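Hi support team,

I submitted a single chain yesterday and got back a structure, but I'm not sure I'm reading the token output correctly. Could someone confirm the output below corresponds to the sequence I sent? I've pasted both exactly as they appear in my results page.

Thanks,
R.
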Amino acid sequence: MLPSLTLAFICGLALGSLIPYYPLSISILLGLVAVGLSVLEVRGRIAVISATAAFGCLLCGIVYWFLTVEGHQGTAFHEAHPDVFQSCNGRVIVPVQYSPGRMMMVVRCEQEEARRPFTVRLTWRAAERRVFQGDRVGIRARFHEPSGALNPGGFDYAAYLERQGIDAVATVNGLEAVEWLESGRESFRWRIWYHFDRWRDAIRLSALHSLAQPALGIFLGIVIGERGFLDPDVRDHFMITGTVHLLSISGSHLGLVALLTFFTVRQIFLRLPAFWLLHMSRRITPTRLAAALTVFPATAYACLAGAEVATVRSLVMVLVALVAKWVGCEQRMVHALAAAALAIVVHDPQAIYDISFQLSFLSVYAVAWQLTRSGAAQEEDAPPLSRFSRAGQWIVDALAMSAMVTVTTIPVVAFYFNQVSWLGLWTNLVAVPLMGILLVPMGLLAAIGQAGAPGEGLPFAAAIQWAMDVFVSVLQSVSWIPGGEWHLAAPSLPSLLAFYGCLGAMWIASHQDRTRWIAGITMVLLLSWWLWSPRLWIDGDRFRITFLDVSQGDSAVLELPDGQVVLIDGGGSYERFDMGRGIVAPYLWNRGIRTIEYVIGTHPQLDHVGGLPYILRHFAVQHYWGTGDVRDEPFYQRLQDALAGRELSEHVALQHQDLVTIAKCRLEVLNPPEGAEQQGGGGRRQGHRLNNRSIVTALTCGPHTVLFTADVEAEALMRMSREHATAPVDLVKVPHHGAASSFQVDWLE
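Hi R., thanks for writing in. Yes, this is the structure output for that exact sequence:
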């Protein structure tokens, strides 16, 4: 009963979040649910008390969402003018996160003019002082409300920060930007968190001194939850092989550590002399004692990892499982999971939209289902098995469990990451035990050794470096399997609901063959459709232009009437976010686009072509056009490497060229002029020289004309206004992001 009521409560939370946007639809849906429950009652399929309790929990979830989320008072922070500096004093309330050249801390700020404290996510570049959780600091910065990209269906960074309780963001530089006021050790409330953060910092510094990439990034990720040093290419290998969940401290890490601790402690007590064991068992059994003692290392590991939201959720699940072990109800795993889920959503209703919450509970529910099925099968097969038969049965069960978890999580992974990691069906069988039994314990032993003998070096550094290098090299080899990286369009919400509805029907009606067959066939059809992801949205005789929000930078997708696709620029690629990977590619996959006929890099600057290497590596690109300018910059070298990997050469675009000519559409180059000086590799010219050589194109389709002006400035605009008797246009992409250097009145007129 508890799992059903918890599910109804969570559904109520989801409906409550949708009511402000779809009030009529939700009202109709609630009516249909009530009618459906009534029909089931009349037919005797469900008890009256069960239907009433389920519908009551559904309504309670809706009310609870409005009381805790929608009815929550607005933030105390009010954004000032963008150029105005504000000051506040506050306390660092979460562990400080580091990445090369910067640190990130969350400060609970207090201002005299503010009604109540507000929370700031502060990025501090070139920081020379070490700051720890619990410290009081003074900040002087330009605070802004969280914002993110505005692409439909894209990742909403502002909403993500809002769910984390962040009211404002700011970035500062240099030692004087943050003033240290008081140590966290002086506060009784924050003292323990301060010492944990100092320990994390010591481990980080020792790892930086002792380990090299990729072992450094993986070690910091699985031991202290630090993801700022992870190599993006390494993350790609884990993503392709379906093992990316191993890079962050999640339920698998905490669960394996707890399982290893529980098993070790229990075996130690079982090997005590018989007299001691008998005397101890009169008060407490070895199983209960092991469950109680496992709480401490699991909790300490979660605190060392920074006690992030996802880690705390995993810890709650582990603690609930230990409590179930203590009271002897470990066989009722689904009820324990329901209790953990209920505790989490009551504390934070918005957790239902967190991918870690969704994947964690889907995975564990899939494991519980498979364990229930295998347990029932073992009861039917009474004859004992030989050693080899047991080993074979264990392999079959592990493969079935991995398959169940993979199938259960495919829709969510595809929805968030536009990818199906089918290799995870096999790689997780080896990678998960290896990470939990070898790599994580090695890392934790090194962390404990560092605390016991502080110094610059990390204990067991050579062994950790070797083990993680081998682990990464094997995954890298597996990731090269053809077809291993399978991208697709994100499934729609109705198809997701249909898939999980069929999965639930197979569980509930496990003894009804007809229902199981219908549900299974429907799931296979949905999976096949998602994997195919055909391009259905070609607009016939019309053309479509999409300007993507890539923050500072440009990117536009042109879909022509005959189905050809032109990509103009791909945004930038920065330390923590690649616009090609995170924005441009997902949009293309969601449109069913896998082939791009023409890619245009308007000029070799980071905010325009930095994201193109990812696009070139993951899409079938037929032609690449650029200015021919050469840069001595890492991003430009990555672009050239990507072109070479695709065996593409850069075609130089010049004025009066037609890049695309079809029946109704023509894409003409208006800039740069032929004979204009190119930038060589020997010297670095000023940015305006590159800007004025940007590729400017005009798309004419029937009576409509659109200008794509890249970063051209007044000099090039004046020349184009003299050379081109330009007819009125329907749409102009503003030159150089609206910079004053590109404001030219004659051209605009």
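A quick pointer for reading it: The two ends are 71 Å apart (CA to CA). Let us know if anything else looks off.

Best,
Support desk
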